[in-house]
């Protein structure tokens, strides 16, 4: 595709009246003369200047501008201005999400005025002619959402353009030839936005990094990270600092802590885990109670405020889990070594310790710094094997009857072995307690999301050679319940103190009523009914739906749509509770290796245990906002990496037919999710040549005008791969038709 060079002066002064008004409105508190306006337009010839003078006089006569002093003009502002965030649509128009309006405000492409997706903008709104909805015009860009973009560079003789890989980016970025940074034509690059002058068709930028050739695995993974401003490696000074830390366990530090090295302690994690940031301890007490410790790596002991290590951890705010790699929040010396609760090693920990009875009721609690020793490491599969082999829990004196045989095919070490009987008893007893706690949560209105996770088997070159689904079993839920318990009780411990103390909470608001109504409309197509009368009925109704769809073809679609009805969980100092978990107090305490808010929680908890005054709320609220934003970017990168791998996997299955479920219907086509591997692609309506299909919004369907054949949300169809685009992360299907109904 050949790009034209910049347009000349004659084009720059086209539609001059609106352009002058736009300049004056943008800086509406300042006055400008014709020379200053000409400079902003980038014109300096006499003819253009004369036209500017003429237009200024016309606007003055219409009383749209005023002359503040001789030859200086300023906009007359009678409009009320608002601020919001721009959400670009695929065709160059967009919507502004603003707290001043109940509905999003539509912005036509000619009123975008150089704003880009995600920008914080100023705008004014007016009623549209149709349906009384609001339309607006952007008058000022308050803050750019991002200054760096990923795209493919097209190099010409003395200039270049970067084509950004996003359907929400309506313009290419112009790069002067002296700013291409040794990029070659067709390379994937990271480009920084430098300026966008009045009258210019495209923003100017500079290539800051060449990521590689399109379609190559490392190029695309690094492009995903760069797209969201996520790092791929640590600065050398941070690595050097981390490597000089004293990670030894010494008696002086042990003396300051509760010594729990003799308590039976173990970890349960994924088989391929490298960082173990939580461990459980279990002891049977003489009074019929059990002492259960949730021990968390004491990251804040090593990551001290005011250091380059802390600055880097804060900026990252989270580890990023892509399909083929983890981009850690902390350097390896901490994440995989000093702060990893590996078996047969002493470690500094921060603990929540509970004395509990057989009904999982807490009789006593303690929080503080500890030193622990992990006796054993289990994978989830190994712990699950113990739970499944022992349906009845023997009394403690009969623990030798527990079957702790771990079969070879699931053993971490690759060979059959017998786990310690005491650990086996602890796993069984804690599983029993976890089920009681989970049941209690469900009765109190918690939502049960057991969404199927898509995982890939990768070869040595990180190519996907198989897809499998990860589901949550009893062993996963055991760990989950005790982590939830620690998070909840730490939040309660601080949150219920008087006077009120600044703390970091993990909050989750109630579902959006409009989204719930949309969900109801969709799931009714599958025969499900929902009851949204009150808070309790919403929770029980959603749980019933999630339970009913398990194992059905529409499960992934319904799970996804149900999650989308939920508000986003976020970090804040303003506690409103956690709707999804049905907790009045909740925080994140249990994963400081991979989440910065947990580090803040550890620091604040110790701060208050030491009797100190309440911390500065404004400082912590700002840190919470940053952490929430980084979590959001990380989630998007993780999703993109899954999408990339799905497309890469489908590249090798181009000649096969697949049965899928229609997961989305639009006027431009249908989206289909393959049942066997959860890969989603699109069938374009332009390729459905057997009829003229029209979109029926109320039926969530495309319906053939002549034949009446319909393709409705949730229906099964047969598709074949038409095209795979690794760069745009786009998968196109050819529609074969509906599966044949077998006549019995």
TrEMBL record:
EC number: 3.1.13.1
Catalyses which reaction(s): Exonucleolytic cleavage in the 3'- to 5'-direction to yield nucleoside 5'-phosphates
Enzyme class: hydrolase
Subcellular localization(s) per the UniProt record: Cytoplasm
Keyword presence, Hydrolase: yes
InterPro entries for this protein: CSD (IPR011129), CSD2 (IPR040476), NA-bd_OB-fold (IPR012340), RNase_B_OB_dom (IPR013223), RNase_II/R (IPR001900), RNase_II/R_CS (IPR022966), RNase_R (IPR011805), RNR_Ribonuclease (IPR050180)
Classification via SMART domains: CSP, RNB, S1
Keywords: Cytoplasm, Exonuclease, Hydrolase, Nuclease, RNA-binding
S1 motif domain sequence ranges: 655-736
Domain of life: Bacteria
One Pfam family, short name: CSD2
Function comment: 3'-5' exoribonuclease that releases 5'-nucleoside monophosphates and is involved in maturation of structured RNAs.
Annotated HAMAP family: RNase_R
Family per record: Belongs to the RNR ribonuclease family. RNase R subfamily.
Protein name (record): Ribonuclease R
């Amino acid at each position: 595709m050949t790009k034209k060079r910049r347009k000349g002066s004659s084009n720059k002064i086209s539609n001059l009246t609106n352009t002058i008004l736009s300049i004056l409105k943008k800086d509406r508190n300042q006055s400008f003369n014709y020379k200053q306006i000409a400079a902003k337009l980038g014109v300096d010839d006499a003819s253009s200047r004369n036209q500017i003078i003429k237009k200024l006089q016309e606007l003055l006569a219409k009383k749209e501008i005023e002359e503040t002093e001789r030859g200086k003009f300023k906009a007359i502002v009678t409009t009320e201005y608002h601020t919001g965030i721009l959400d670009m649509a695929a065709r160059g128009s967009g919507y502004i999400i603003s707290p001043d309006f109940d509905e999003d405000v539509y912005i036509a492409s000619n009123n975008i005025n150089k704003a880009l997706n995600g920008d914080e903008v100023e705008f004014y709104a007016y009623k549209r002619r149709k349906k009384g909805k609001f339309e607006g015009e952007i008058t000022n860009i308050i803050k750019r959402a991002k200054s760096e973009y990923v795209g493919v560079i097209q190099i010409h003789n003395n200039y270049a353009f970067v084509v950004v890989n996003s359907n929400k980016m309506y313009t290419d970025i112009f790069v002067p030839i002296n700013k291409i940074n040794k990029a070659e034509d067709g390379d994937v690059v990271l480009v920084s936005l430098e300026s966008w002058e009045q009258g210019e068709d495209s923003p100017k930028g500079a290539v800051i990094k060449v990521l590689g050739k399109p379609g190559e695995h490392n190029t695309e993974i690094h492009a995903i990270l760069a797209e969201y401003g996520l790092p791929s490696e640590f600065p050398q000074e941070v690595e050097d600092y981390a490597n000089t830390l004293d990670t030894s366990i010494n008696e002086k530090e042990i003396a300051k802590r509760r010594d729990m090295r003799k308590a039976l302690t173990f970890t349960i994690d994924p088989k391929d885990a490298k960082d173990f940031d939580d461990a459980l301890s279990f002891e049977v007490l003489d009074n019929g109670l059990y002492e259960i410790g949730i021990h968390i790596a004491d990251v804040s002991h090593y990551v001290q405020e005011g250091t380059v290590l802390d600055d880097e951890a804060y900026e990252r705010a989270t580890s990023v889990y892509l399909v083929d790699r983890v981009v850690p929040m902390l350097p390896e010396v901490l994440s995989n070594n000093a702060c990893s609760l590996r078996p047969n090693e002493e470690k500094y920990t921060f603990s929540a310790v509970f004395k509990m009875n057989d009904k999982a009721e807490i009789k006593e609690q303690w929080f503080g710094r500890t030193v622990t020793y992990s006796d054993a490491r289990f994978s989830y599969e190994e712990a699950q094997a113990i739970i499944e082999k022992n349906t009845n829990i023997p009394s403690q004196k009969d623990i030798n009857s527990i079957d702790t045989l771990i079969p070879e095919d699931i053993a971490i070490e690759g060979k059959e072995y017998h786990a310690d009987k005491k650990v086996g008893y602890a796993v069984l007893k804690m599983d029993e307690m976890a089920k009681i706690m989970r049941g209690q949560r469900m009765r109190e209105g918690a939502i049960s999301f057991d969404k199927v996770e898509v995982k890939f088997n990768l070869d040595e070159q990180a190519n996907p050679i198989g897809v499998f689904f990860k589901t949550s079993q009893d062993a996963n839920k055991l760990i989950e319940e005790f982590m939830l318990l620690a998070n909840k009780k730490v939040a309660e411990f601080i949150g219920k103190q008087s006077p009120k103390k600044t703390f970091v909470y993990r909050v989750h608001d109630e579902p959006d009523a409009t989204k719930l109504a949309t969900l109801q409309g969709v799931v009714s197509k599958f025969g499900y009914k929902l009851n949204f009368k009150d808070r309790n009925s919403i929770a029980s109704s959603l749980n019933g739906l999630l339970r009913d769809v398990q194992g059905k073809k529409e499960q992934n679609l319904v799970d996804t749509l149900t999650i989308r009805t939920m508000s986003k969980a976020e970090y804040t100092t303003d506690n409103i509770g956690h709707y999804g978990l049905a907790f009045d107090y909740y925080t994140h305490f249990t994963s400081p290796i991979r989440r910065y808010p947990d580090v803040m929680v550890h620091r604040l908890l110790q701060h208050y245990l030491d009797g100190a005054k309440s911390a500065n709320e404004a400082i912590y609220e700002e840190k919470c906002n940053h952490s929430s934003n980084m979590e959001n970017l990380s989630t998007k990168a993780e999703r993109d990496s899954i999408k990339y791998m799905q497309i890469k996997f489908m590249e090798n299955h181009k000649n096969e037919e697949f049965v899928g479920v229609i997961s989305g219907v639009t006027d431009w086509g249908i989206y289909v999710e393959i049942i066997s591997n959860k890969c989603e692609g699109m069938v374009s309506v332009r390729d459905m040549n057997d009829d003229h299909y029209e979109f029926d919004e109320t039926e969530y369907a495309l319906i053939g005008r002549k034949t009446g054949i319909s393709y409705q949300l949730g229906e099964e169809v047969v598709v074949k791969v038409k095209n795979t685009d690794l760069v745009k992360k786009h998968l196109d299907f050819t529609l074969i038709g509906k599966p044949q109904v077998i006549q019995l």
